[in-house]
Specification:
This protein has 4 helices and 2 strands; from the N terminus they run H-E-H-E-H-H. It is mainly alpha-helical. It has one domain: Rossmann fold (3-Layer(aba) Sandwich). It has a two-stranded parallel sheet. The longest helix has 18 residues, at about 50-70.
Amino acid sequence: MASCLLITIVEALRRLLLDVPVVMITAHGNIDTYSKAFKLGIFEYINKSVNTGEFRRIVKFALGKGMQVSVPAVREGRIAHPDQ
């Protein structure tokens, strides 16, 4: 159920043309959700058993990528730049 909600949220982000990196964390993932998530362009799909160090590494990398990917959204005023 929660995975379906996350897919719905990512779909809404994409409809708004927000190319933000999405890291999806789930305890009840399945191949259908995994496939849908990556088709929507999520950054990473993690099972809830991920350790803190690995999670931090993924988020740090996603945030670095996000600043490159989201530049048009920032320029058009759809989202605020994190340095402002």
